[in-house]
């Protein structure tokens, strides 16, 4: 009997797939609950540290989670954490997006009004287009542009994770996704701190400032934070505008899915293109349920906490699984699509608020 070739060094098997495939004879292992615990425990500790930094030093929690996850990248070389990392970066992500729908109702969208709604849709389309154009101008793939533009247009890290789930790691390397996520978090943090100041300088009303914060700042918490830092009235308007953007997550992700095909890169035809991931359908269902019945405020509050926690776990796990050396090699060009989309988002939102509100 011929000797089996020696397995590759564990340190070279970043995600553990080669080791597991070799151990199981090339078959997919059936994992027990205990096998998920090491990876989930590591991610939970890192997420708790990110939350502490956010609460005590004002650092955006997603950005803190990314930085901590990247600093602990070496842990991913241990195959024992692989199942838990997989669970956090996929399962937790999907359920986090589903629970995000518990914060949205059709009434909130109707409260925005037809003209601001159409303006918001137009702004989002321009932002996505600017991300794609910037990516192609600087020699990057359209997938990076769609990811940067879509995440900037909708709701930051949450949208980025949902869009990346459609694109897939076969068409966009994980380190490129992580680098884009870092850029989105940085841009959102800068926007939250600077846009209220600019709104004051131009003597915006509460409605104008609220639209600007809700339409131009990426992440939900920072968008609302920017609005309420201007005034309570602006914060209430920013909440409506931002939640309308979040409600458009599902249709925008569906359109991106039509544009890029399935995650394996195969082009689809006919009605099969309209098949949505189950978590997007579930997101629609939760929004519909929340619109039809009066959901208690306590359930909404805990739903938001759970959604933010699950998405934070997904971000941390994704950062831990990214190749730090490849991430550092990206350079400033990797951030161009994010900042181009951010600039377009700001100016389009600013002009509409200034001229029409």
Verbal overview:
With 357 residues, the protein is mostly helical. The chain has one domain (13-22, 35-356). Helix content is 73%, strand content 0%. The chain has 17 helices and no strands. The longest helix is centred in the middle third of the chain and has 28 residues, at 174-201.
The stretches of 5 or more residues where confidence is low (pLDDT under 50) are 1-28
The total count of helices amounts to 17
* Shape field: globular
Helix content: over 70%
Tell me, rounded to a whole number, the average pLDDT: 81
Task: Summarize the helices and strands and which ones pair or pack.
Elements: H1 17-23, H2 33-57, H3 61-71, H4 82-100, H5 106-112, H6 114-137, H7 142-153, H8 157-167, H9 174-201, H10 206-216, H11 220-230, H12 232-247, H13 249-260, H14 278-292, H15 297-320, H16 324-328, H17 336-356
Features:
mainly alpha; 357 residues; 17 helices; disordered N terminus
Task: Compose a concise summary of this entry.
The protein has one domain (13-22, 35-356). The chain has 17 helices and no strands.
């Amino acid at each position: 009997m011929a000797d089996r070739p020696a397995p590759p060094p564990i340190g070279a098997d970043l995600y553990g797939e080669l080791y597991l495939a070799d151990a199981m004879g090339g078959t997919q292992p059936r994992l027990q609950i205990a096998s998920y615990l090491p990876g989930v425990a590591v991610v939970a500790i890192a997420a708790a540290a990110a939350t502490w930094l956010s609460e005590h030093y004002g650092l955006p929690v997603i950005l803190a989670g990314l930085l901590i996850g990247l600093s602990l990248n070496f842990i991913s070389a241990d195959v024992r954490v692989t199942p838990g990392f997989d669970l956090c970066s996929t399962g937790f992500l999907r359920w986090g997006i589903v629970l995000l729908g518990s914060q949205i109702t059709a009434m909130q969208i109707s409260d925005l009004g037809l003209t601001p709604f159409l303006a918001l849709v137009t702004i989002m389309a321009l932002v996505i287009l600017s991300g794609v154009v910037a990516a192609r101008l600087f020699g990057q793939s359209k997938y990076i542009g769609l990811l940067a533009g879509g995440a900037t247009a909708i709701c930051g890290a949450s949208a980025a994770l949902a869009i990346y789930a459609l694109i897939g790691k076969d068409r966009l390397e994980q380190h490129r996704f992580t680098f884009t996520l870092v850029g989105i978090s940085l841009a959102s943090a800068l926007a939250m701190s600077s846009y209220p100041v600019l709104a004051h300088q131009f003597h915006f009303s509460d409605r104008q400032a609220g639209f600007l914060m809700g339409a131009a700042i990426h992440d939900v918490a920072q968008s609302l934070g920017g609005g309420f830092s201007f005034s309570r009235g602006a914060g209430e308007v920013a909440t409506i505008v931002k939640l309308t953007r979040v409600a458009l997550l599902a249709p925008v992700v569906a359109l991106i899915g039509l544009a890029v095909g399935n995650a394996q890169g195969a082009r689809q035809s006919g009605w099969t293109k309209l098949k949505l991931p189950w978590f997007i359908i579930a997101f629609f269902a939760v929004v519909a349920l929340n619109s039809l019945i009066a959901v208690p405020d306590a359930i909404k509050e805990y739903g938001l906490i759970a959604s933010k926690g699950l998405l934070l776990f997904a971000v941390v796990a994704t950062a831990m699984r990214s190749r730090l050396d490849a991430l550092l090699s990206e350079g400033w060009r990797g951030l161009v699509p994010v900042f181009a989309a951010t600039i377009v988002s700001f100016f389009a939102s600013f002009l509409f608020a200034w001229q029409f509100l």
